[in-house]
Amino acid sequence: MLTEVTVTRYILPLREGGSLPGLVEADDLGTYVLKFTGAGQGRKTLIAEVVCGELARRLGLRVPRLVTVDLDPVLGLGEPDQQVQDLLKSSGGTNLGMDFLSGALGFDPLAFEVSPEEAGRIVWFDALVNNVDRSWRNPNLLRWRGEVWLIDHGATMIWHHNWPGAETSAARPYDTSDHALARFAPDIRAAAAALAPLVTEELLAEVTAEIPDAWLVDEPGFAAPDDLRRAYARPLLARAATIHDRIRGHR
Ligand SMILES: Nc1ncnc2c1ncn2[C@@H]1O[C@H](COP(=O)(O)OP(=O)(O)O)[C@@H](O)[C@H]1O
Ligand SMILES: [Mg+2]
């Protein structure tokens, strides 16, 4: 289970991307980037963050620690910004938090060097989860203490927006021509050889067990949260074995 904390103070909005995550302080005195259950795609974005973040971590990639964050919507009452106020008010209950990497820099593909091995692992992972949000325009990679960290896995696993078509959708190739790391000659073959065997049914069960039940209820066609957890695992298991042959666009 992810550690659970409670928001004690809303600090400020992070206005870089579209979803307006907030910087908050919690009852454990930690500072977190908060992703709101009441934002745009809401719960599915948060599920994608948990599945991809926890999977990436288990594959040895760097991802800030994830926590669940309980929020009292009353915190919204004192917010002068209407958009922020609405987000806080509509996000009572369980939200997602991640460790705020203080002093991190946005990754600049022209200013930093990444080895073909590391680029290969990240590109292969993005292909696995079908991440469409790691372009050179918007890398969603941070540079912190000299290393590359992965953030923002909300726009992945497009198939979870249409479960009946999931198998067909997950069979599609992955195009890397826009990928932030395409220019680093990613060694995808080596990455696949090292990482694909790690993506087992057991590992995916462990990863999907981290999704809070509260985000899994009421999905049409699924009687229980564990059925939906298995639906998240299935396309990833299938894709892990073969996706390296369907990655296109890199040099
Ligand atoms: N864990 C983190 N530590 C430091 N800064 C972060 C962290 N997560 C996000 N940020 C900053 O906030 C911005 C927006 O977060 P992101 O997860 O990309 O959400 P979105 O793009 O949906 O708004 C990032 O581009 C980055 O600058
Ligand atoms: Mg982003």
From TrEMBL:
<dbReference type="InterPro" id="IPR046748">
    <property type="entry name" value="HipA_2"/>
</dbReference>
<protein>
    <recommendedName>
        <fullName>HipA-like kinase domain-containing protein</fullName>
    </recommendedName>
</protein>
<dbReference type="Pfam" id="PF20613">
    <property type="entry name" value="HipA_2"/>
</dbReference>
<feature type="domain" description="HipA-like kinase">
    <location>
        <begin position="14"/>
        <end position="241"/>
    </location>
</feature>
